[in-house]
Amino acid sequence: MSETQATKQVRVCQYQSCRKLGADRVLEAFELHPVDGVEVIAVHCLGQCGNGPMVLVLPEEVWYCRVSPQEVPAVVERHLIGGNPVKGMLYRKFHPSNG
Ligand code: FES
Q1: In this predicted model, what pLDDT tens digit does every residue of 58-95 receive, in sequence order?
Q2: Is the CB of 46 inside a 6 Å radius of any atom of ligand 1?
Q3: Which InterPro entries does the entry link to (predicted)?
Q4: Distance 33 CA to ligand 1 centre (A)
Q5: If I label 59, which of 38, 39, 69, 81 is the partner at 20 to 30 A Cα–Cα?
Q6: pLDDT by residue (tens digit) across 28-68?
Q7: What stretch of H or E contains 55?
């Protein structure tokens, strides 16, 4: 039986404010690009309403704000596969020295 242990988690906010800004399509875009060892989950409000769609990548605690579905492939390729967060998309509140 093959069981892949997820080592990373992509949390995509699906609560009111983020949904109004298109978070459902962002979640879909991540689901269309599955990566081994990465679990994509819909979560409740991440406490950063108005800056959404918000995406949080764990365990490294990288936050992305105002994510659009078109940007998801860059996050998948460069961050989830390549290991380098996409600087231009980072949420400055929690990553003040980047982007
Ligand atoms: S609704 Fe997404 S951060 Fe609050």
Answers
A1: 999 999 999 999 999 999 999 999 999 999 999 999 99
A2: yes
A3: Thioredoxin-like_sf (IPR036249)
A4: 23
A5: 69
A6: 999 999 999 999 999 999 999 999 999 999 999 999 999 99
A7: strand 55-58
Assess if residue 95 is contained within a domain.
no
Check pocket membership of 21 for ligand 1, CB cut-off 6 A: no
Q: Is 9 in the pocket of ligand 1 (CB under 6 A)?
A: no
- Yes or no: say if 73 and 42 are a contact pair by the CB < 8 Å rule: no
DSSP tag of 30: H
Considering the domain boundaries, does residue 72 fall inside one? yes
Tokens of 86: 């996409």
Q: How far apart are CA 5 and CA 38, in angstroms?
A: 8
Give yes or no for residue 57 CB within 6 A of ligand 1.
no
* Distance (Å) from CA 26 to ligand 1 centroid: 13
Q: Is 54 in the pocket of ligand 1 (CB under 6 A)?
A: yes
